[in-house]
Specification:
Layout: E1 2-6, H1 13-24, E2 29-33, H2 41-50, E3 58-61, E4 64-66, H3 69-79, H4 90-105, H5 108-113, H6 129-149, H7 162-176, H8 183-194, H9 196-207
Parallel strand pairs: 1-2
Antiparallel strand pairs: 1-3, 3-4
């Protein structure tokens, strides 16, 4: 059985992405949880025992280890083609990979200013011009995908895909930091928050004890 090594569901948006890809597609896997930010050497050593990068998530499939969220999704798409984690149409598949890569490597101002923390009381904060530009670009992506594929289903490319797994944590950040969502993007937010796997992750994250005061919580 596959093993997915993850960090705290409260904080680890990168762990959330492949976890959702697995759970939303009913792919069996063993969840291995290692606490983050504990400054406990045993926890750090345990992460290193699974991945020399010293980071989560990591997917273990026999003697194969994949230690990057987007790479894990790519691996799952190849191993389980029936899940259609990428759209079948070449143009749509290319589009899905492009926006997933953009999410994977971009939007640093928003990431830095709005850290993932499920326990955080819902409240807006002042955002920098760069973070507001990130918000606008993300909603542009969502609205564009809906305009192209909305008739095929409620997600970015109709059915749930790897692109949705990549953007799902941002939906939660928008909610936590009370970031207004334009009407043309709201349907996508509603689809993600209604996804049973998303709700399961959120419920588990809220059940976790707060480990650190790393993120602003007022």
């Amino acid at each position: 059985m596959l093993k997915l090594v993850i960090g705290n569901k409260n904080y680890s948006s990168w762990s959330m992405r492949p976890w959702l890809a697995l759970r939303a597609n009913n792919i069996p896997f063993e969840e291995i949880f290692i606490p983050l930010y504990t400054d406990v050497k045993a926890d750090k050593d345990r992460i290193l025992s699974f991945s020399r990068s010293g980071k989560v998530p990591s997917l273990i499939d026999g003697d194969i280890t994949v230690w990057d969220s987007l790479a894990i999704i790519e691996y799952l798409a190849e191993k389980y083609p029936e899940t259609r984690l990428w759209p079948q149409d070449r143009a749509s598949r290319t589009h899905a990979r492009c926006i997933s890569a953009e999410m994977h490597s971009g939007f640093m101002p928003l990431r830095n200013e709005c850290g993932m923390n499920l326990h955080r009381p819902i409240r807006a904060i002042p955002l920098s011009d760069d973070a507001r530009a990130n918000v606008a670009r993300i909603q542009e992506i969502w609205a564009d995908c809906y305009a192209r594929h909305g008739k095929q289903g409620p997600f970015l490319f109709g059915a749930f895909s790897g692109a949705d797994a990549m953007f799902a944590p941002v939906v939660h950040r928008f909610r936590t930091y009370a970031i207004p969502v334009k009407p043309e993007a709201q349907a996508y937010v509603d689809a993600i928050t209604s996804l049973p796997a998303f709700q399961e992750w959120t419920r588990d994250g809220l059940a976790e004890a707060l480990v650190i005061e790393r993120f602003e919580t007022v």
